[in-house]
Amino acid sequence: MKRKYCFAALMALSLFWAGCAKDEGNYTYKNLSTYFVDTAGMPKSYLAKQNDVVNINLNNVEGASTDLSYEWKLVTQSYAADPNTGTYVNKTLATTKDLSFKVVDVPGEYYLVLYTKDNSNGGITQTIKKALTISGYASPGLMVVHGSNNESDISILVNSKLYSAYTQADKIQSNVFSEINGTKIPGDGAGVTHMVQGWVSVFTNNNSGGYRLNLNDLRIMNTYPNMFVMPMASGDVQFQAYDSWSYNELMINKGDLYFMSQAQVNIFNKYGYKCYGQDYVAAPFIAATDGGKSPFVFYGVIYDAKNRRFLYIDYNHDIKLFKSLPANGAGKFDMSNVGKDMVYAEMGLGTTTPKWYCVMQSPNNPATRQLYVCQFNVADDGNRGVDLIDISAATDLANSKYFAFGSKANIMYHATDTKIYQNNYASDKKSNLLLDISGSYPGSVITSMKIFKYTSSPVHPNDGKLLYVALYNATTNESTLLQINVSEINGSFGTITPYLFSGKISAMSYKAK
Fold it and tell me: What's the pTM value of the predicted model, to 2 decimals?
């Protein structure tokens, strides 16, 4: 028995040592690689518009297998189906090394994926994935309404400051509206806006009113009168102001305020009856107070030019009076009894919520201009007039026609026909001259001024850092749009880039998609 066990142990030990011995059999090992296509020259991402043809030509790396097969795919970045179409894109574009395809898919964020397979080595595969942004035919950028008193058009300024995904030379996509619709916009432009729920609206100063447009190509969707449940008669059409917060739209027509929620993407709810509750004639300015941030009390604030007082609408869309200033209250003026004319108003710097900065003056007396500041971060307590600043002595303030307020710091710009000033309303109340266009652009006058602001998500890298000033030369019938880099903290001017447009610029607004 002992011999048997010893023999078994010796056999096991022999097998162990044999297993540890070096195997010098006749084998061939390959150093396999998955680097077949040279990616060094490929950009990090691609940008294309609907109906563009995308061409990508690639080179194989030196020494790559000659038995390669290719598959290009287009895949939606989001794992969820598109809420508008109910589809999730995952389709093959080509089975060739070089790609050429016409963009027909809806605007959005996609991946271009290339699978390169080595058929001679078990199908080992190289995967290349690049982001592709598809925009509508009407590019993201700054929409500019320009033309004459008789007709206007919409062109779009596109550059990397406005659209960070754009990496090519600055361009102007000219006359998009007339190219798509085959006609100009009748009348002089009064406003243009991009609604987050999926459309663009352009407004005019005549009795046609303007249009609601398709976001992707600016195709006409509704005439202005047909944006109302009861189509508005031409004699009642008088657009004056528009603003929005979240998915809610506010508009002033002929002194009346209209409010409509647009809760569903790409489904337009027409405006119903005007907002009732008080006797009023709205000035052409709106404080788009986010109801969710203003304790669900203020759904919008206007100034009553008839009775010279501030009014607000509540969640029922009823016009409400502000409470009177209480005795020993913290407010600086009585919101319900102001007695001034509104010259200009814009949402600007605030702590918990933006404040509404209102340039006011005594009737027909520009020399009396003051800054009335309102804030709507708490329910009406009679103290919503949080500041009253006398800036009447500021240089050329009485002659100023255009104003702009920053939202990152205490910044206020005001402009005459030819000069742009910055007013230090938070300190010495004086105005400093920043730019006189009469030397660089003789014969031109300023026709509009606007700080670039983008309050939706995601945060825009240049929010509050660009000032746009439109100049018009009547002799040449051309406008120059100045894009001015500004400090969002102290308001100082940096690089100024000019862009040329035909006719007079009357309105501009950012188009995010």
Answer: 0.84
